[in-house]
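for the writeup, i need someone to sanity check this before i put it in the appendix. the sequnce is what the collaborator sent (i think, or maybe the updated version? ugh). structure was predicted straight from it, no edits. if anything looks off just tell me and ill rerun, i have time this weekend
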Amino acid sequence: MRLPLIPRDNRFFDLFVEDAANMVAAARVLEQFMRNYGERERLASQLRDAEHAGDQMSHNIGRQLEQTFVTPFDREDIHALISRLDDVVDLIEEVADTFILYGIEAPTPVAVEQTEIIVRQCEQVAEALANLRTFKGLEQYWIEIHRLENEGDRIVRRGIAELFTNGGDAVDVIKWKDVYTLLEEAIDACEDVANVIERIVVKHA
């Protein structure tokens, strides 16, 4: 077996795992935010910290990429992966911020269900990245993430339909439609991460 003259820098895998752990932590804080809404200001502050931590991790990986000659897989895929992970955390933080800015009195069951989907997707992403260095046996993760995204689509369609059929205040309808859409964007962003992982694995199959 021919060995590469210059070894690949595999520290990236550990950095991806660290980045994903921050994303999972943020998703779980958002779930606490929904279930313990009386503590929303404190939990929103934690999410801002997680968003800043995610930005710092992305910068660290970017610097590592600039200093590394041989990467474990294509540079554009590394950029795409850290960018998509960052998107998820940004959207999670934006959801909590929007709840507070809009003066929402309490989360709806639909918002809670959407958040549960995000948590489960993030956990699947983290498990996939923990096993990424082998480039094997990862199909189960992106299949589950796609399944969860489809479930999220059904939930948001039902939620938006309820807004327009229950005859609520027009301003409240607009607020909740914005919130549901943001949560849906976070769910879609998790699927985007899964798509990047799938692309990486297919290239190394």
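Confidence is low (pLDDT under 50) at residues 1-7. DSSP finds six helices and no strands in the chain.
thx in advance!!
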